[in-house]
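The instructor's notes for this session suggest beginning with a concrete chain rather than abstract definitions. Hand out the sequence below and ask the class to guess, before any prediction is shown, which regions might be ordered.
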Amino acid sequence: MNPNGATLWFIPDGYLASPIGTDPMYKNHEAICVMNITDSDAHLLIDFYFADREPAEGIAVTVPAKRCYHIRTDDPMQLGGYQIPFDTPYGARVRSDVPVVVQYSRLYATTANISLMTTMAHAAE
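After discussion, reveal the predicted structure:
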């Protein structure tokens, strides 16, 4: 792998749980965390795959040069207006025109015991 990251990443286990309550601090959410240490903006294309429906492909997101950006999957404004369906397992493919590093995080706050899960995405190169 390039020391600056990779241009193709996979996240096989996505799941955006329905929101519970109204407190934004304790809202179920996920983030695709992208670190771009290059001198160029990273132009991403994100594809979401499902077991029971056609994929949503080519969702464009830009991560500026030398920045770390957390793409909240519960926020359609960060996904070009696309709303990931709640309570539906999915996987994601992240393609970039420059090498980046991708991590995936999930905050699960539907019980009194809030949990945070995070893992590196799988680099395919």
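Then share the key points. The mean pLDDT is 88. The first strand starts at residue 6 and ends at 15.
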